Amino acid sequence: MQKMLIGGHLVGADSWVEVLDPYTQQPLDHVARGGAEHVDQAVRLAQLGAKQMRSLSLAQRAHILRQVAHLMAQERGALASLLVQETGKLVSEARIEVERAITIFELAAEACHHPRATQFPPESFTDGASRFGFWAREPLGVVSAILAFNLPLAHAAQKVAPAIAAGNAIILKPSREAPLTCLRLGLLLHRAGLPPEALSILTGIGEEIGHALACHPGVDLLNFTGSREVGLTLSATAGSKRIELELDAVGVVLLTESGDIGFATDVIAHHGFMMGGQSATAIQHVWLPARRFEQTLAELIPKVESLKIGNPMDEETTLAPLINPQAVQRVAHWVEEAVAKGAKVLTGGHAEPPFYLPTLITDLAPDTRLYREAVFGPVIALHRYENLEQVVHTLNRLPLEHRLSVFTREIAEAFEIARHSQALSVHINDSPALPIDPIIRGDLQEHHMCLEDMLQRIERVSRPKYIGFGAMRLFSDSVG
Question: Which residue, 190, 191, 317, 347, could crosslink 310 as a Cys pair with Cβ 3.0–4.6 Å?
Answer without folding.
Answer: 317
